[in-house]
Amino acid sequence: MLLEQIKGPQDLKQLTKEELQQVVEEARTALLEKISQYGGHNGPNLGVVEMTVALHYVFDSPKDQFVFDVSHQTYVHKMLTGRAQAFLDQAHYNEVSGYTNPLESEHDLFTIGHTSTSLSLANGLAKARDLKKETSNVIAVIGDGSLSGGLAYEGLNNISELGTNTIVIVNDNDQSIAENHGGLYKNLKELRETNGQAENNFFQSLGLDYRYLEAGNDLTALIELFEEVKDQKEPIVLHIHTTKGKGFSYAEANREKFHAGGPFSLETGEYLRSSKPIETYSSLTTDFLLQKMNEDPTVVAVNAGTPMILFSPEQRQQVGSQFVDVGIAEEHAATMTAGLAKGGVKPVWAVHSPFLQRSYDQISHDLALNRLSGTILVTLASVNGMNDESHLGIFDIPFLSHIPNLVYLAPTTKEEYLAMLEWSIDQTDQLVAIRVPVGPVTSTGEVDQTDYSQLYKNKVMQKGEKVAILGLGNFYGLAEEVATELKERQLTATVINPAFISGLDTELLDELKETHQLIVTLEDGILEGGYGQMVAGYLGNEAIHVQTYGLDKAFHDRYEVAALLAENGLTLENIVKNIEQTLTEA
Amino acid sequence: MLLEQIKGPQDLKQLTKEELQQVVEEARTALLEKISQYGGHNGPNLGVVEMTVALHYVFDSPKDQFVFDVSHQTYVHKMLTGRAQAFLDQAHYNEVSGYTNPLESEHDLFTIGHTSTSLSLANGLAKARDLKKETSNVIAVIGDGSLSGGLAYEGLNNISELGTNTIVIVNDNDQSIAENHGGLYKNLKELRETNGQAENNFFQSLGLDYRYLEAGNDLTALIELFEEVKDQKEPIVLHIHTTKGKGFSYAEANREKFHAGGPFSLETGEYLRSSKPIETYSSLTTDFLLQKMNEDPTVVAVNAGTPMILFSPEQRQQVGSQFVDVGIAEEHAATMTAGLAKGGVKPVWAVHSPFLQRSYDQISHDLALNRLSGTILVTLASVNGMNDESHLGIFDIPFLSHIPNLVYLAPTTKEEYLAMLEWSIDQTDQLVAIRVPVGPVTSTGEVDQTDYSQLYKNKVMQKGEKVAILGLGNFYGLAEEVATELKERQLTATVINPAFISGLDTELLDELKETHQLIVTLEDGILEGGYGQMVAGYLGNEAIHVQTYGLDKAFHDRYEVAALLAENGLTLENIVKNIEQTLTEA
After folding, report:
1. Boundaries of each Transketolase-like pyrimidine-binding domain copy (chains A, B) (predicted)?
2. Are B549 and B523 in contact (CB under 8 A)?
3. Which of A69, A100, B93, B526 fits a disulfide with A142 by CB distance 3.0 to 4.6 angstroms?
4. Phi and psi of A271, rounded to 5°?
5. What whole-number distance in Å separates Cα of residue B450 and Cα of residue A580?
6. Domains of chain A, start order
7. Residue A142 near chain B (CB below 8 Å)
8. Which helix (H) or strand (E) holds A523?
């Protein structure tokens, strides 16, 4: 096996073209072995095996600098830069992350997990090179799907302005995570169909040189192309047509299904799912919206490039024009939602917490400042969400809940969630965000009759004494557990479901400060800038004690949830101990 | 005078072409009278007088819906929609805001003050119209300068995708706030020079129909063009060449100077400045950077479309390639800064607080997550910054300071500011943001020798008893005033300059909690999610009292600073009273 012997790009450069082709085959085999067992970004990596081998053969990393957009397509890059074992030996599978990571290799320049950033990063690298009067190639690899993000356009604009060596590789597999959306994709299609000769050319219109390569999975053609542009002085766009999922027929045939996921069967192309619960908060959302949209043709669901959060391809067909996927363009999703609300329809925008932060200004300036209604469904907002450092769902309380005119809700059960959804979609007074619960569905079995237009009214679930525990959203269950434990120790705690994140029930807190000695807050996110600190600030000048629990402010990476919670004192034992200690001393 | 008689667009429609031209002249005269006395966005409004009259003559607002990008060019729109008096009568000048405002008129759909949002808003309005099966025209007016923002591109992309009536008017006066930057502007220039016939066409490459009009200040030509496209089913881009500052020779000749400002002399074209202090925090920044950049060719200043924050046009020439204006594209500015830092140079990115929020994700994901160094100068971050509701500088502490790996500094004097700058630019361990002081320069006269690499070490400026006052940044002076007042009442307070916003000096707080009865925090921004609440959270379980002072969470509009501070308890009298009350009761 050649792949095992490649310790870095320099080893690749010694090989013949035939041996390079063998490396391609070995890499693809290793890729399929690992992803079928371990899961990952399947389609994107299968599609760029040849391109990655060609890039490392022609260019001289790390002197020449590669930036991979999203960097989810860098498995082969990792194989060729000293990390092959993590793809060849099951025992080492977990030794590399799914993205580029400077801690792993000098060939990984950035930790990247969000889309559309590569061109701006490359522009900065090129400018730094020029200021230092050095010469090298800066190469950005960006997928067609990532070109829908405005930042990519800003990057192209400024690469053209700088005017020095920057090689932009558009890896066009005619697919985003799901299908592409936007006028640009008509142009990419024209360009593919005319072998790059179409009259309209988006890249040339921005003043950039342009080359098209149809044979994007042909190693020889790729090497030739890269050799031709290497060391050129001006920026250039190389538009390369690749096949997403290349070499695995099921992935080639079903590009959305095989964008990411796993493990799966190499024989049948079926995902090996552990038996999935029938009802999840995701399925509840989908079912609710399908019915609501059917009843009310002015309800419109909005999403930025991750439609599967809400609907399967078939369901998207079913709801037709009542669903809008704007491409990976979270800013547009937010601002379009503002336009929809102003236009008198009922928008529901669903977005994962780590990507919501891409729209901070649009939520503030376009939606909240304008006091427009509309519903934002914030998904995967939890320590139990995704656990890659670039995909954390633990920062949304600090960045979202302090925007004026925005009501951020934290449901704790299925019934609350559905009642909040129903209220939010139909009302026209408030911008509402709902922190969709993460974890198994809990149900009271009783319809929630709460009037959520009474803003910031908390729910006292159990009246007790001495200590009041405010369990926010996903951590309400922990509040109940603490209360149960205290009960065994002969203390009946007051248990509160705040339901609202973005403001306090000051009437209740004013009452508690007279009647209780301690308030405990539990939140599923970082502590700093969060809910508990609001409570502590409000009661800072009072005699009552306030203990706040949440996570420390850090980009935690591939963590074990239980361990991280324990490090942050978020265990039943620790909380009970601290409560008892404070009550004893008080 | 015709203008006085126009109470709404319907009155305009009754006029002859000659009378319409008279309205144009009257509007321009009124505009010049008001802006020369009152200030405002001069060039943008002078350039669109004819266009605005033509738009309201041809289209039927509010049934047809106008969205003006940034909406700083809507003075004539306001004149024609029932608000002429606010431009004709000095006594009423202050009755309209400088931006569209739904509270003023049904013809103003949105409150808008940030760039590049209009196309996405229009896309939402058009989609809402389609869902409701209504017919009307949706018209977005966007300047060439605003097209540098990625959101505008996302909007164009999705307008093309939707494929129904949306009239995008590109008001091209070949100028942003300062000069334009980016590849797009080469294309706009080609298009202007070929009467719209250039081979490359950015808009057509996105699948949009396109029309060019060279005579953008010709009323008749504009009316003809708008009548031709009114009610058409497909989206279209109307690229219209206008003259920024049209009708005022000084503004036409000096487009950057007359973008905004005032009052000025109509005779000499000079701004009537009250005598400006020689030294401001702005001049200190400029002087420092000019020297630093001269000494170190790897220091590079970055800015997004507001270069005058740092340098005059002449100074920009002087620093040459060590200054980069990326156009109005704050996301790119942040991510390019990450690339520059990784590339081994020393980037300094200067940005007004209200626009900083456009880069939340890029600061978090591209800079902070990657632990890259680099300096962000946050300007106008204060209740004393701009006071339009879309331009507030009071939210940056909550949204910026809770991002991991980011050190946010709050200097209180000239010497501190310069020492922080010096440290930040040269070090390579931290991403540093500096909240540039707002207000008159204060000076100790002594070089600040603080070692800021000792993160989160606060400065105890006066040791006292019972109460410790933490005066953050701009509000440090208030802390001193409170201490002086307490001193007169025989109480020596401890006075602390935290210097750091993004974390606490826990060692100091642990000491204070044993030795003092009360901690008071003062911060120049909203209270929620801010610095004081961090302090209160840290000390929540302790006996010591914490009083937090800051502004309420709201989009305050055109406020009087003193009144707003008083409403929020931020007066010397109130703070002293509260301190005394707590100390008496404690």
Report:
1. 279-444
2. yes
3. A69
4. -70, 140
5. 42
6. 3-253 (3.40.50.970), 281-435 (3.40.50.970), 459-585 (3.40.50.920)
7. no
8. strand A516-526
Cα distances from B55 to residues B81, B137, B215, in angstroms, run 12, 11, 15
User: Looking at A34, A83, A244, A435, which residue is catalytic?
Assistant: A244
| Chain A touched by B343 (CB under 8 Å) | yes
CA pair distance A180, A305, nearest whole angstrom: 8
10 Å Cβ neighbour count for B66? 29
Are residues A366 and B128, on separate chains, in Cβ contact within 8 Å?
no
Among candidate residues B83, B358, B414, B513, the one labeled active-site is B358
Contact B109 A342 (CB under 8 A): yes
- The candidate with the shortest Cα–Cα distance to B474, out of B353, B310, B322, B300, is B353
Query: Chain B 540-559, CB below 8 Å of chain A: which residues?
Result: 540-542, 545-548, 553-555
What separation, in Å, do the N-terminal and C-terminal C-alpha atoms of chain A show? 70
pLDDT in tens, chain B (586 residues): 999 999 999 999 999 999 999 999 999 999 999 999 999 999 999 999 999 999 999 999 999 999 999 999 999 999 999 999 999 999 999 999 999 999 999 999 999 999 999 999 999 999 999 999 999 999 999 999 999 999 999 999 999 999 999 999 999 999 888 888 999 999 999 999 999 999 999 999 999 999 999 999 999 999 999 999 999 999 999 999 999 999 999 999 998 998 999 899 999 999 987 666 789 999 999 999 999 999 999 999 999 999 999 999 999 999 999 999 999 999 999 999 999 999 999 999 999 999 999 999 999 999 999 999 999 999 999 999 999 999 999 999 999 999 999 999 999 999 999 999 999 999 999 999 999 999 999 999 999 999 999 999 999 999 999 999 999 999 999 999 999 999 999 999 999 999 999 999 999 999 999 999 999 999 999 999 999 999 999 999 999 999 999 999 999 999 999 999 999 999 999 999 999 999 998 6
**Which residue in A26, A104, A330, A416 is the catalytic one?**
A330
DSSP-derived secondary structure letter, A247: T
Q: Do A161 and B155 touch (CB under 8 A)?
A: no
Mind telling me how many Å the CA of A404 is from chain B's nearest CA? 5
- The closest alpha carbon to A332, from B209, B363, B331, belongs to B331
DSSP-assigned letters across all residues of B504-544: --HHHHHHHHHHEEEEEEEEEEESTTSHHHHHHHHTTTSSS
Whether B358 sits among the annotated catalytic residues: the reply is yes
User: Is residue B369 less than 8 Å (CB to CB) from chain A?
Assistant: yes
Q: Please confirm, yes or no, whether A358 is among the known catalytic residues.
A: yes
Q: Would you give the DSSP letter of residue B368? A: I
Q: How far is B110 from chain A (nearest CA, A)?
A: 6
* Cα torsion angle, B449, B455, B461, B464, sign: negative
- Within the 449-488 window of chain A, which residues sit less than 8 Å (CB to CB) from chain B? none
Q: Which of chain A's residues have a Cβ under 8 Å away from the Cβ of B111?
A: 369-370
How many residues are there in chain A?
Answer: 586
In B, which residues are within 8 Å of A366 by CB distance? 110, 112, 117, 120-121
Q: Is B581 on the interface with A (CB under 8 A)?
A: no
Cis peptide bond N-terminal to B263, omega within 30: yes
Question: How does pLDDT run across A140-150, given as a tens digit for each residue?
Answer: 999 999 999 99
User: Would the CB atoms of B153 and A150 count as touching at under 8 Å?
Assistant: yes
Q: Which one from B26, B50, B104, B330 is the annotated catalytic residue?
A: B330
